[in-house]
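Continuing the batch. This is chain 6 of the set; chains 1 through 5 are on the previous pages. Same settings as before, nothing changed between runs. Recording input and output for traceability.
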Amino acid sequence: MSHLDFGEFEPYRVVKKRGRCCIPYGSDQTMSIKLSICIATRNRGEFIGETLESIAAQCTSSVEIVVLDGASSDNTEQVVRALQNAVPALRYFRQEKNGGVDRDYDAVVGLALGEYCWLMSDDDLLMPGAVDAVMRAIERNYSLIVVNTEIRNLDFSQLIDGNRLSFFEDRIYPPSQLEALFEQVSGHLGYIGAVVIRRDLWGARTREQYYGSYFIHVGVIFQWPLPNDTLVISQPLVSIRFGNTQWRPKEFEIRMIRWTELVSSLSSISPEVRARCYRSEPWRSIKSLMFYRAKGTYDLGDYQRWVKPRLASRWDRSKAYAVACFPGPLANLIGLIYCSFKYHDSTIHYLDMKASRFFIRNWFRQA
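Output for chain 6:
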């Protein structure tokens, strides 16, 4: 979901769609639901059925699934509605105009009834026992629960990374350790399916300023210290379907620009901690630019729109321009060689290189 046309959909209102109703905060009817698994989706008919089945198999009377469809033009609605007949806990809402990923996740939380909301992706799978593990954690009144993940290939037949966080025991972060949470976990929180958050906490925080960032959940979490402890569950609970992102064509903008802008806006995190975790101006790094060039997601259009206006030096602009013009297949070959050496995430980066439009097999296929 990469469109930024927000339309007229307003979250946190009473919304009635096709005979189904959203119940506002504080209603007695919300008391029996402890966990809402919230999915904002668009054009995922090929995948969302499998995702919902992995969740529905673990649902109890205290768990609901809420799907907000951002004006899909494929068969997403038919897939979800077919599952509703067998899954009473599944509620489906459709917008006639796509709101963008941040606004849609904000809206789906507003449609939820649970005490906690798990912001689930629309093409990944819950692992067996995932809901039980989160439900046990909910009883301890955490502000935030972060779940670990594993990464598999597109059809889940191959394990790529079995422990994304590299944690081997659960960790608890009190409110005073927000910066430690940021330093150790924020990179993982770029994946929205890792987030289980109290619904009232989400509703009490500023959200609109993060529309268009692609990471509204990170802004909500780190804009102020959390009122209660945060639990990080070390056991992987979600299988991520690697290589299926919808926003790959916008990856440079999202990873290099939007993420950087979001991090720099987090006044609750000291500049020193932010600097230790992330470059403040990653577009100045020739290595980073070459990496995205090799992946096929940095070109002259990205240079003109995102990089050139941020570089005052003619020399810096010349280097960034040269990378944008560098032959893509050659950049990809260099990237493949570099990623063949073992380092953290080398396997994932190698697969990214093979997914590039400049990978030799893909290059000839396009030709």
